[in-house]
Design a protein that fits this description.
There is one protein chain. This protein has about 375 residues and is mainly α. It has two domains: about 110 residues, no CATH class; about 240 residues, no CATH class. About 60% of the residues lie in helices and about 5% in strands. It has 13 helices and eight strands. Helix 2 packs across helix 10 and helix 4 crosses helix 8. The two termini are about 20 Å apart.
């Protein structure tokens, strides 16, 4: 019986029983029958459970929950009882910048410090979410497995057993991370947000609008703005909120109370919606997720013994008919064998052992 006939016999035996099963075991050798041309099958797609996980963690938790909690915290420090505490921090920072001559102009130092700290207040919600975010990212496989079960997604292996969380296909593998790494990611996001806030305030400032004179008592000195232009941060907030008020008046005939909770939260959320998007993107791209791969990955970092064991027993989760994946595995093995053949420190007997492989076969439930 030819290899193609053997393979077709296996497909006929397994596929009727397991339909859309996605888990198989493929043992790939270094040579392949040229008549067995691989089919151009698409790679396994992201499961419903993994899609729900990503949406819930990075859109729901890390954006919307982050946005609402950050606005509430910022409102407390910018407009309510926490205002005195924030002003003390702003004063201390301004004093440090001027006395150390990092910034020579007192007005400039105070203005940029005020913008920076008020922007940072909008990042505080993200730090509250560090714990649940880490918990979810560390448990992505079992959470996705459970969501798939709830959604009725079949997670059946070719031999008929239900796949465990470690066996299901994951497109973006999520490794466990230390607390230090998660906090570092959050700090990177905060740095990006504060930088964006200062940049917006400077480059989008309205130089035609001069604000009325205002004096701030910094404790160590008083600072008076007698010719302060409208910064970009306040300019965007005022302009957007004015349009929102117009819309509210058209709908209800009334504008928002300027000192009411809705007004305060809306004005804070105008910019924070952008800032939260920045942190959500930073947390997403720095989460360490990588493309799901076979349990025994073969690359040049493996020593000869590990490589030989991996070549002898390569396992992966892929469709039984996915010959394209088998071809990629074969190319990887052949490339490694070729690279080792040119290295003097690798015994030729080892390379020959790798090369003396039978025609590729497919096994089920190995």
């Amino acid at each position: 019986m030819t290899d193609m006939q053997q393979e077709n016999a296996i497909k006929q035996e397994v596929l009727p029983q397991n339909g859309n099963s996605s888990a198989v075991v493929a043992e790939q050798k270094s040579s392949q029958n040229p008549e067995n041309k691989p089919e151009n099958k698409p790679e396994p797609v992201m499961s419903k459970g993994e899609k729900v996980f990503d949406k819930a963690v990075y859109t729901g938790l890390n954006y919307w929950v982050n946005l609402i909690s950050s606005v509430a915290i910022a409102d407390y420090f910018v407009n309510l009882k926490g205002k005195d505490s924030l002003n003390k921090i702003i004063s201390k920072t301004t004093e440090f910048l001027t006395k150390s001559k990092i910034v020579k102009n007192l007005n400039t130092a105070h203005h940029h410090t005020k913008v920076g700290w008020e922007t940072m207040a909008l990042c505080m919600g993200g730090f509250i979410l560090v714990a649940p975010l880490k918990w979810l990212e560390d448990r992505k496989r079992p959470v996705v497995h459970k969501i798939n079960k709830k959604l009725g997604v079949k997670q059946i292996a070719p031999d008929g057993h239900e796949e465990t969380p470690d066996e299901i296909h994951i497109v973006e593998e999520q490794p466990k991370q230390s607390w230090g790494n998660v906090l570092w990611r959050r700090l990177v996001g905060m740095g990006a947000v504060v930088g964006a806030g200062l940049t917006i305030d400077h480059f989008l400032a309205d130089k035609k609008t001069i604000l009325p004179e205002k004096t701030y008592d910094l404790g160590f000195e008083k600072v008076t703005y007698d010719a302060k232009i409208l910064g970009g941060k306040d300019r965007i907030t005022r302009t957007a909120f004015a349009e929102i008020n117009k819309a509210a008046k058209l709908v209800s005939g009334k504008e928002f109370n300027k000192k009411g909770v809705v007004s305060r939260w809306t004005q804070l959320a105008i910019l924070d919606s952008v800032f939260t998007l920045i942190t959500a993107v930073v947390m997403k791209v720095t989460n360490g997720a990588k493309r799901g791969k076979m349990p025994k990955e073969i690359d040049d970092s493996n020593d000869p013994v590990v490589v030989k064991d991996a070549v002898d027993n390569i396992t992966t989760t892929a469709d039984l008919c996915d010959r394209a994946f088998a071809e990629r595995v074969e190319k990887r093995v052949n490339k490694l064998v070729d690279s080792m053949a040119t290295r003097s420190e690798v015994p030729h007997s080892f390379v020959e052992t790798l090369q003396k492989k039978d025609t590729p076969t497919l096994g089920v439930g190995v």
